[in-house]
Amino acid sequence: MTGAALAVTSPVHVTQARQLAGRAARSAGLPDSVAERVALATSELASNLVKYATGGLLVVMPSEDRLDVIATDRGPGIEHVPQSMRDGYSTTGTLGIGLGGIRRTADEFDIFSRYGEGTTVLARWRNTTRTAAWSSDVGIGAALLPAPGETTCGDSWAVANADGVTTVALSDGLGHGPDAAAASRSAMAHVTADPAAPPSALVSAMDADMGPRRGATVAVAQFNHARSTVLFCGVGNSTVRLVRGDGSHETLVSTPGIVGRRQRSGRRPLPLARPWDHRSFLVMHTDGVSERWSPAEQSDAFDHDPATVAGWLLGKYGRHRDDACVVVVSGSGST
User: Fold this and answer.
1) What are the DSSP calls for 22-49, one per residue?
2) Would you kindly state where each structural domain of the chain is located, as residue ranges?
3) Superfamily of domain 139-330
4) Where does the sequence pass through the membrane (predicted)?
5) How do 281-285 and 155-162 pair as beta strands?
């Protein structure tokens, strides 16, 4: 799946953010009246980034049945979140619809903030005429950011559901720009074409089909709802962390290599099977996001929507010099 992101640091970016979200809303098939609400809320989110935040980033993520708009920053954070939701609340004396207005404008709303560190806000609009690409047994959220100077992200992700399993995949095309994006699209197409295939078979098919395109690193996780398991297979340097309901966590290790070149090296991807339940989280991200974060230190973030978690990790740990993509899966099935 694709998305778009915009660094928001000056007033001119507010207009750009509004236009970006408006186009995405119309492309997602949302009615004109809803698209206007999306644009209004996005303008307020972007304005807040300019007025209050440092390192502001606005992410627009469409999927089959919804549109997510995520605003994330690196500080200073909100000291009293409930107070900030009140109508008319402002620390600068300016007028706007505020966070409370955004919450009423959106179909779903979430906010996570740490005072002194930063804030992530999620506003979501549903398209009730379309069906989600995944089972209701899992919740999924994502956020991505193109490399500086690029309008196309070379990282991508995919999700599809069939025969009682939901398969989620992440791809990082080598380099960045349109050629990297083409490599990622080629890899992710195999997931949507055959979501019930075992992850190791999907990776092998991606490898064989890459042809003259640039290679990619990939991570594939398949959730079997009847068996309460997740099966993982990856190639390359993606970071994948499983967070269990009891607070314990594990890094799922990929096979070294690059899809599209691995066959010549003789390496084979190694599948891993782990228990999965309604309290579990799986986080996958490309190397455009630093792996120097601990699930234990982010435990309060995991009380939130997967898309909020994805936006928080991208905003706080994104390197901002390469393509970046974060995909978060929860076992709650709430999104």
Assistant:
1) HHHHHHTT--HHHHHHHHHHHHHHHHHH
2) 4-126, 139-330
3) PPM-type phosphatase domain (3.60.40.10)
4) none
5) unpaired
Distance CA(88)–CA(274), nearest Å, equals 48
* Sign of the alpha-carbon torsion through 138, 256, 322, 1: negative
Q: Classify burial at 163, counting beta carbons within 10 Å of its beta carbon; exposed 0-12, middle 13-18, buried 19 or more.
A: exposed
- Distance CA(109)–CA(70), nearest Å, equals 10
Question: What is the rounded distance in angstroms from the CA atom of residue 329 to the CA atom of residue 289?
Answer: 17
CB hemisphere CA count around 257 (13 angstroms): 21
Is 0.85 topped by the overall pTM?
yes
327 three-class SS: strand
Report which secondary-structure segment, H or E, holds 273. Answer: strand 272-275
Say yes or no: domain 4-126 is CATH 1.10.1670.10: no
